[in-house]
Design brief:
heterodimer; A: alpha+beta; six-stranded mixed sheet; four-stranded antiparallel sheet; 16 helices; B: alpha+beta; two-stranded antiparallel ribbon; two-stranded parallel ribbon; 25% helix; 29% strand
Amino acid sequence: MNKLKYKLIPAGAAEGRNPINLIFVDKKDVVEAGLTYREACEVIAKNFKEPAAVNILDMDAVTVSSDGIMVDYGIVAFASIDYGMINKDFGYLEVSEQPYSTKLLEEEPHMKQWDNIDAYKGKRLYRGPNFEDRWPRVPHNETQTITGRIANNNTGSEVMNVVDMTEILIPAYGALEIMKDGEVLIGIAGPEISVGIGMVVFETYGRIFHRSYGAGLTAHNSGIYAKTVKSDYPAICGPKSTLAEYTIRALEIGLVPGKDLGCSPAVLSIAHAMGLPIAIDNIEERAWVELESVGIKKADMEKPVEKPMTKEEVIAHADEIVPGISDGKPFKVSDISKICYAEF
Amino acid sequence: MKLMHTKLPDFYQKLQDAGKKLRPETEVVVSGLENMQSAKLASLRVGRAEEYVEELTQDPEVTKIEIKILPQIPETIHTIVFKALRKDGTSPKTILGSMFVTGPAAECYYYDSEQVDDRRVPFD
């Protein structure tokens, strides 16, 4: 009997803050087990039986957060499992690697991180599934898998049980910490993250959108209502210091929020605290309406800070500088997860 | 598939008739299209539906057939018509929007069946 290792954050974990079974698999363990990604999801489904989202991650790869910050892992496949099954057509999605090209870097200024940050250079890039991966979904369908009660959306970062209608967000740094057995911050997303998720960058086959909204635009485009659309959902985030560290890496190579990077409250707050440029005039008015509704005022962002903070100061004070997450509580990943083995 | 079509009320009646053909006491419950008052359904698929229902009643232990109609693509894209009306019933403006709706997938309705025979139209 062979075994496939996976990490489970069970429904009810973290003092009941996590409502849905979340399964994370290291690509290396899938390869070691001699399975394809799809076979790995099927093996877990047959063993686990309960509703769950499954994400397979390549920890030697890179991906991009919704606001354009590169992070060093990539989701290579994701699935929804329920009742021991995977929906034949919609329960599983693979994410094709996106090859390096000068065209991609020219079209997508945030991808300069790939070339200019040593930790990412030469690594395989995985963002969202391409059109072939997505078939038989039509272009407007979301990048999600659906089996039974579980929808695993936006390339494994938003999971919903469509029967009891619970949901949880897994932003990029949350997944990173989970895989590294680090520390996560679990709380209610709140209005700032609700607005921030809409401040995306232009990407070919992004985790959420395909060549849709450039930096400085709002994908939500819903005025003062943007702050409420995802504000009530629980989220498993990385520590704010981790978010700050990765964001600063991008800012330090000269990328500008609102022009090269998304204008999320987190990215704007960090850039402003460090006295770095923000493309104020490139941020559309509709985006400012959403930002101002959560306290990120255009007038404040235009004013230079009296004493710009250093990288170290921002990371040390990230909890005060980076907005978002209410009722957040830190948890060691090892305390809320368990290692399981699926037999096949 | 692009031949003639079946009216929605006729479809419901045909399912009832097929389910009760062998044993009139067989209960036939159809759900999923309650918000449609009028529609036409592909006759080819209706004929097959009638045959499937009758086939399921061949098992003498079967006393009830549940028929659930749901989108084969679990995330459906809907048009929403936002229409403003004056007191006299005239309309000054309509906004057309889109809504993406993800519902429970088919597994929710058959997970406890001992045997599943998938005869749906394939996507490729």
